[in-house]
Structures are given as structure tokens and as C-alpha cells.
Amino acid sequence: MVVNSLAFLWFFLIVLAIYYICQTKKELQNVFLLASSYWFYSQVDLKMTGLLVILTLIFWLLGKGVFYFLEKEDEHHAAILTNVGVVIGIGALFYFKYLNFFADSIVSFASLLGIHLSWTTLNLVVPIGLSFFTFKLMSYVLDIYNGKIQEERNIISFANFIAFFPTILSGPIDRPKPFLKQVNQVRSFVADNFMLGFRRILWGMFLKMCIADRLDIYISAIWNNYEHHSAVSIIFASLLYPFQMYADFAGYSEMAIGVALILGFKVAENFKRPFFVIDIAGYWSRWHMSLTSWLTDYVFLPLNIKFRKSGVKGTIAAIMLNMAFIGMWHGANWTFFLFGIYHGLWYIPLMINGQFFKKRKIELNAKGWPTCPYVLKMIGIYLVVTFGLMLFHSANMTEFFNVWGSIFSHWNGGLFTDMSTMVNAAICSVALIYVDIQEEWRPNKKLYLPTWAEKWRWELTVALEIVCILMFGVFDNNQFIYFQF
Amino acid sequence: MKKLALPIIIVACLFFVMDRIFGVGLKYLYSISNATDEYKISYSNETTRDSLLFIGSSRCLHHYVPSIFEKELGVTCFNAADWGIKNIYYHYGQLGNILSRYTPKEIVFEVHPCDFLDTPYSGIERAGSLAPYCGMSDACDEMLKISGNYWKYQISWVYRYTGSLPNLLTGKLGSMDRSLKGWKPLDGVLDTTGLVAEEYPFPIKQEKINLLERFIKDCKERNIKLSIIVSPMYICSKDDVYKIPRDIATKYEIPFINHYRDSTFIGHPELFYDFGHLNRKGAILYSEMISKELKR
Hints:
CATH superfamily of chain B: SGNH hydrolase
Number of helices of chain A: 18
Structural class of chain A: mainly alpha
CATH class of chain B: Alpha Beta
Strand order of the largest sheet of chain B: 2-1-3-4-5
Number of strands of chain A: 0
Strand content of chain A: under 5%
Order of helices and strands of chain A: HHHHHHHHHHHHHHHHHH
Shape of chain A: globular
Oligomer: heterodimer
């Protein structure tokens, strides 16, 4: 069930109606929310619903255990149980996502050394959303151990945190503390939440259907047949890809956040205009923020503390490991690993210059716009990201090198044009760029409306957004890129 | 809830008004477009009143020269075919729209395997081209209902033209020459290297066959002289690809004109643009032949 489908709309409307009928009884509302979430997940991945339930139960019990030992000031046993939780979480990820990859890689490497090992590739299906909900499970146990939260006594509340249907498939990856606080409160219908949430859903649909899916038609036409396309076309498609990724994933995140908001939850933000930055650290602080902040808290900071004695070298080692994790989180493929390492390398100059821990601001001119050198830096970062995403997009390293081979050898042809697709995407992309520029540098300036229309701003915007989606959207229910992770 | 009711009602009203205003604008742009798809679909569905119509997909679009038929038969003629592997779902809805306006005297239907086989590349989605004419005829609406989009098109006029704004804005600059009355000539000569016959290893699609039969019945009910026709290919399948439409034509006692393996054309690359489409020279030669056959 895709979030921007009619099936989801019906599901959500029914859930919403019953959910707020139950609003006077918090427990009933939570039970219904959990049932809805499990039903939703079962529609997407029936076979793995059992795994989700079992892991939820295990981590809930582990949380209880860790908290019990901490209360008894038995740090040792609490640490053991926390480690058990981490091992189970990583183990689940490893088994479903990485086992075949590592086994195949070891067999290939051994054969290079003349050692013949045998491994039958297991027919494993990765549970949808695994990378998202295992991170939530692990953070729960780790946060209890670190004293950030207490155990969640109510298993229904905890299960809702893990299986919350707007975010289970592709995030944002919520943290236990803010979510559990909200799930344990009475959530009544708030019209303002509905209005804001609905707008965010529509904006997400616009990003996904009018920009990402439209660009996908052009980019796929080139990437899937790069052997037959000119260098100019491949480079142009590659330059569009970061924008497609942004529209696709930010679109999903907007929809998830909007749906959650209508249900009375404020979940984590995931994107904050990621291309308006002047270094790679800025980019990762605004791109898939819920993942990067998770890894910063649970991987980078502990590693950095561990390597503290080594100074800058230690920080570099911590960031390289962290970025390698970010890369591999996306999937079991050397392209993802190198994607992470590639981004990690761009951090090194920042650390050597001592700029890593400083938040670098973009210099603005008298009119409040970025100055020319900063605009050039932003373009530079976009190009850096583009190269990285070419790795990300490639099915394997052979494809990556072949694409570059085509770029270097196909200089004769012109640009492949698909005017209708390009113009449709361009019109909508201009709207996104305009909105992002406004939010970044003119946050308080609203689009002008005559006085008589001002009081209908929400209504006008919503109606216009619906018409735009109908006019420019692609309606074949394309999957979201991040569903595969 | 009460606080929300009014904004939702206002949104619904604003959406309705905006949708209709934009929808009317898009419909106008659609009707004046000279781009192949838009012109062919709009003119054949809502404008033509010619006596002889050619209906079919791209092979029909490129192969029948209306001026030759007008001269030979002394009737007005329009080539109402469209490219894009259109199939019987589209053709049947199109026929319904035409019959809702007038009754042509004669229809020549160029049949293609996509009109009776379960081809993976040409299914019910082709009926989507009828979206601008939702509500025009029962047959058209039936096809849109089968495609699952009928109610969406009823609710939103803009949705009928989704994704086509750039085409419509530049439609006036399109390549269709209206004086050719629907024929789109192809200029160029076939490159024969590596050519193999197109095969159709697909099962029969009963729904398509039913529509093909209904197409024939509707024409017979209106006393329209209907011929089913197959034009030449440069290289042919070994199989008897057109057995099904031939049997149907026999069943309903209508002419089945088969030039699929016509030796005048087979193996003559100078008459073809690609393996399945005649070029300008081939189309003129073929139209002269067919016009004489239809006259008989």
C-alpha cells in the first residue's frame, strides 16, 4: 500500500474517524492505533509482521530488564542486557540484509587467494522498514541504559512507537523520548493540526508525484540505457538525480509527518533544504536528519570519545566509520559502502582546518541573499553530492565504471530531450526551489495575497495544490526510493 | 470538527471552480493543438463528419491517404487512426463518440494483434486517451470504467489532461498538417540490416475479442459499411497472425481485406520506413490499390 494511493486514503480516513471516536479513552485509542499499524504493515509485508511483533516484545522486555538493573544500581547486568539488545538489533539487520552480501564477498575474496569456499546464497526477503524499526528498537534500550528515558511500562505504547504506521516504512526514525511522551497523552482532535498536517501531506504528494516521479521518467530512460546515450545526457541525468532523490524522500517524509500530525503526533523532521549548504557537514545535517542524528548519537559520538586520545586522527577515524555505517545502512552493496567512505573523505579537510565542529553560516549581502562566493560553494557541494549519488544509483561497481566509461567515450551525441517530461518537471521544480528559497532566506515573507483573500489563504493554497497535483502528477503509484532500505 | 467543516467546504468549492476553469482552458488548448496525438484524438472524436473513416493504430495512421480515397470514391474521407499502440479499447470508445455525433457511411478498420491478443504492451490503459471525452458516449464511458479511471475523470476535468500541459501549450506548433486529413506520412527508407519478423506469442484476450465483435455489431446496426483490413509488412511472421479477425469477419459476413503478405510490398525496402510502416511512397501506392478494392 503506497502512501500516495487511493487505498491508503481510504485506510487513513477510516482509521482517522475511529481513532477520534476513541479520543476520550487513551488506552482504547492506543490499542486501535496499534491494530491499525499492524494491519497496515501486514498489507505491505504480511510474512514479516510476526517478526515485527516478536522483536517488539523482546525489546520491551529488554528495556524492562535494563531499567530494573539500573534501578538496582547493577550497571554490569544492565550493560549486558543493553548489549544483547544491540546484538539482536544488528543481528536482525545483518541476517536479513547483509548475510548474503558478506558471505558472497568472503567467498569471492577467498577464491582470489586460491581458496575455494562454498556458500549457497540464501533466499532471504528483507522485511520492509527493517532498517528503520530496528534503529528505533535499539535506541530505546540504549536510551534507557544511558538514563535518558525510563522503561515504558505499557507494551501497547511501546509497540505503537515501533510500528507507528506513518513512519514504519521509511521513517523519519523517531526517538523514544518524544514519541512515548506523546503516545501516553490524550490526543484529541485539533483542527489546526489537521490543517497543517493536510498541507504537509499535499506538499509531500506534490514533491513525490510531480517532481520525483516525473524526473524519474527522464533519469531512468538514460540510466537504464546509458550505453546508448551521450555524455551530455548522462551528466544531465546525473545532475538531476540528487534533486529527484530529495523530492522523493522529502516527499515521503512530508506525507508521514503530515499523517502523524493529523493523528496528534509531532514526529522528527527529516529534511531542511539540504542543498543550501557550503560544506558536506552542512549537507548531512539537513539530509535524512533523523538517520544522521541517530548515527551521530549512537555511533559517531561514542567512537569519537573512544578515539579521543588520537586527536584529529581519532575524529577522522570516527567520522569515516560513521559515514561507512550511513552508506551500508542503505543496503548490502559495495557501492553504498564507497558512497559512505566518499562522503567521509570530504569531512577530512573540515577536520584538519578545525571547521568540523563549527556551524558555518552562509554570508548574506545587504538584501539578505547569499553572496556570490557562497552560491558557488553551494553549487560545488551539489556537484560533490551528485558524484556520490552516481555511486549510490549504480547497481554495482561495474555499472558505475561503465557509466563513467560512457561519459568519457560518448562525447559526440547531443542532449536527449523529452520535452513534455522535462517541462512538467521544470515547472514543479521551480515551485520547490522558490518555496525552499523563501523558507531559507525569507522565512517571514508570505506570498502576497489581496486582503480579501488573505483569510482564505489555507483554503486557496490547498485547492491550488490539489489542482497542481492533478495537472502535473504521475499517477502510476511509483514506489518510494527509500522503501527498499 | 466544526472549526474544520467550513474550511473543507470552501476548499471543495474552490477546487471545483479552479478545476473547471483550468479544465476548460486545457480542453480549448487540446482542441486547437496540431500535435499528432491531440489533433488526431480531438478531431476524430469531436469534429469529423466525413463519410469514410479509417480507424486503427500507427499502421493505419501512416498507410491511408484520404485524398486518394476522396478522389477515387468521390466521398469525403478522414484518417482517424492514432499512434501509440492504440487498441480496441480505444477504438471502441472512439467509435462510440463518433456515433454519438453522426453516422459515417463507411468505416475501414485496420486490425492489429493488439486488438485481440493479451499483449503486455497494449492493454486497457490505452483507453486513457479517451479521458477528455469522458461523458461523451456510453461506449467511451464504459472503456473508461474498465480502465478504472471513470470517476476520477468525472470529478476532475484537469485530471483528464494530467501531464499534458507542456504539449498543449506548444500544441499549435505541432507537426500535423491538417490538410492531409489525418494522414501522417513517413519520409525515409527502411534499413534492412538485422531485421526479423515481429512475433506475437501472446494468448487471446476474450475481452478484446468481445469488443471487436461489438464494434462490428454497432456498425451493422447503423448500416455502416465496415471492412476489416490488414496492410502490408516488410517482413512477416510465419504464423497465421490474423486468423482470429478473419474468422470474426467471416462470422459477421463483412469483408476482410488482407495485404499482410502482399508480394508488391514484401521485400521492398524502398516502400517502407520501418519493418511495419510504409513510407510516403509506399502509402500512396497502397492507398491507390485499396481505393480501387473498396470501389469494387
